[in-house]
Design a protein that fits this description.
The chain has 151 residues and is α+β, with helices and mostly antiparallel strands. The protein is built from two helices and five strands; from the N terminus they run H-E-E-E-E-E-H. Helix 1 packs antiparallel against helix 2.
Length: 151
């Protein structure tokens, strides 16, 4: 009976992972980069260009029509925290300037040859380390019980 109790106690930390956020989206539209928050994965708008000089040598700075959705940040909710929002770039607007999700908005982005369409250009993603989880804890508990019996 003690063995079962010890294993259950050691497994509790892996069960109480309520604050874990999911992975970033695999890809995002030009002018945004993958990100995560307590409300889930989203495509964070990158900084807009201000002039041709802020773009690469063979790029131009110009308006791109994108659907942008405003979402709640998640995490603490009122009255414990002030409400917060974040912007998620859904994709390009339809030809008539409408969006299925979000609002069509003009954003000044770098585009043209030699560019990545306004994203941050690194093509990289941060990957969260995997948790050991309950199997490793159960194995540790079993090793501890075996050690205690041999004493």
């Amino acid at each position: 009976m003690r063995i079962v109790l010890v294993i259950l106690i050691l497994c509790l930390p892996s069960i109480a992972a309520a604050d874990v956020v999911g992975p970033e989206p695999e890809s995002c539209p030009a002018g945004s980069s993958p990100s995560v928050s307590h409300s889930g994965p989203y495509c964070r708008p990158t900084a807009e260009c201000t002039s041709e000089a802020s773009c690469g040598a063979s790029q131009t700075c110009g308006a791109v029509m994108q659907c942008v959705e405003t979402r709640g940040c998640g995490g603490l909710m009122p009255p414990d925290a002030e409400p917060c929002t974040l912007e998620h770039v859904v994709g390009p607007c339809d030809g008539d300037g409408s969006c299925d999700v979000g609002v069509c908005r003009a954003r000044d982005l770098c585009s043209g040859e030699g560019g990545s369409g306004g994203d941050d250009g690194c093509g990289c993603r941060a990957v969260a380390p995997q948790e050991a989880g309950w199997p490793a804890m159960a194995l540790a508990a079993l090793a501890w019980v075996t050690w205690r019996r041999r004493r």
